[in-house]
């Protein structure tokens, strides 16, 4: 089976982004492009945690609701959340109402502040774990979902282990791997995908933080 399918403009793209129209813009403009903005990185770590056991389509459809509910993923503000905020979030039908995941996001905001103080920024920490160039093995390994046949990597295992050591929650190797794919720490666009070269050019021009 080919790793790519033609998009609406006829250009080939990763097969997974044909699953739903919402994936196309995400695939073409976000997924695999390098990010050094702490707020976006923290948001993505949170959302990948909320995705656990669900599909990325579900989370993507609710992303704006999550941003509103979590004050734009301002980690300093989230770090000050208390039980009233947990109750507010549990009552918000626009997000995933899972107490464990909500409490993990609050905990992780506190841990992110500590980590940023130590490393200089969340970005500086994250990019220490950039995956080295690898030969793709498997036509369908590019996926925004933990359902991907290739769901972990040595880099994601290492980051997951270190984050857990620091007290983070919902940051297993599969969750971290999906985060690394999305935030451009590895270019996992399929060979032949029209966006792969664009993502690689962005990675080549990207100035690594720290």
UniProtKB/TrEMBL annotation:
Gene3D superfamilies, sorted: Hypothetical protein, domain 2
Superkingdom assignment: Bacteria
GO biological process: base-excision repair
Keywords assigned: Metal-binding, Zinc
Regions of compositional bias (Low complexity) in chain numbering: 141-156
Residue ranges of the region described as Disordered: 135-156
UniProt xrefs under InterPro entries: Adenine_glyco, DNA-3mA_glycosylase, DNA_glycosylase
Any one Gene Ontology molecular-function term assigned to this protein's record: DNA-3-methyladenine glycosylase activity
One Pfam family this sequence matches: Adenine_glyco
Binding site for Zn(2+): 14, 27, 189, 193
UniProt name for this protein: DNA-3-methyladenine glycosylase I
Species per Swiss-Prot/TrEMBL record: Roseomonas acroporae
